[in-house]
Specification:
Layout lengths: L8 H4 L9 E3 L2 H20 L7 H22 L26 E7 L5 E3 L5 E7 L5 E8 L1 H6 L1 E2 L12 E4 L11 H5 L1
Parallel strand pairs: 2-4
Antiparallel strand pairs: 1-5, 3-7, 4-5, 6-7
Length: 184
């Protein structure tokens, strides 16, 4: 008989984070990122089809951009696009500047990252500490791993469950510390 693993943060994520790379950002980058997130959220409000809570949208962009900033610091490459414009123009992989079809998903500690039900690209998962500018780089997750370890039941916002799923395969990432690690 195979033992069942309970799908929760304490069994799947907490035990492994101490062994993963960590990045600390300073407040100056946080201020720049928050300003950019505000501009992006303001722009989104003008787009056709926008609906939702502005503060939640601004917070989501801030979290995502801070994760990208942490990866910039770790890898020594530019990831963040500081321009603001129509969403259709910016729906590209986060690492397109260095020629990789790879995205970044940043999530607050205690939550599972939200992904597409059918992933279109590999993703790097980053966990943001709840009170510090500390980021845990979980690793690179190939599309097949993203598809295998997902559950809509772990999505906290019921309205999001229709279109997204939560990824819980954090232990199955490929550790990255350099751009070469990504290219392999």
């Amino acid at each position: 008989m195979v033992a069942q693993i309970e799908l929760n943060y304490q069994t799947l994520v907490s035990p492994i984070v101490k062994n993963l790379p960590k990045v600390y950002l300073d407040e100056s980058i946080e201020i720049k990122v928050k300003n950019l997130a505000t501009l992006i959220a303001e722009r989104k409000k003008q787009e056709k089809g926008y609906k939702g809570d502005f503060n939640k949208l601004e917070k989501r962009y801030t979290t995502g951009l801070l994760g990208e900033a942490a990866l910039e610091k770790l890898l020594g490459v530019e990831i963040i696009d500081w321009e603001v414009g129509d969403s259709s123009k910016y729906d590209v992989e986060d690492f397109n500047k260095i020629g990789l079809n790879c995205g970044v998903k940043t999530v607050e500690y205690g939550k599972f990252p939200l992904i597409q039900v059918v992933p279109v690209r590999d993703e790097i998962i980053v966990i943001k500490h709840p009170t510090e500018l500390k980021f845990i780089i979980c690793g690179l997750y190939k599309k097949d791993i993203l598809e295998k370890y997902q559950s809509r039941e772990l999505v906290l916002d019921l309205g999001v469950r229709e279109t997204k799923t939560a990824f819980y395969g954090i232990p199955f990432g490929l550790i990255i510390k350099t751009v070469d690690d990504l290219k392999k």
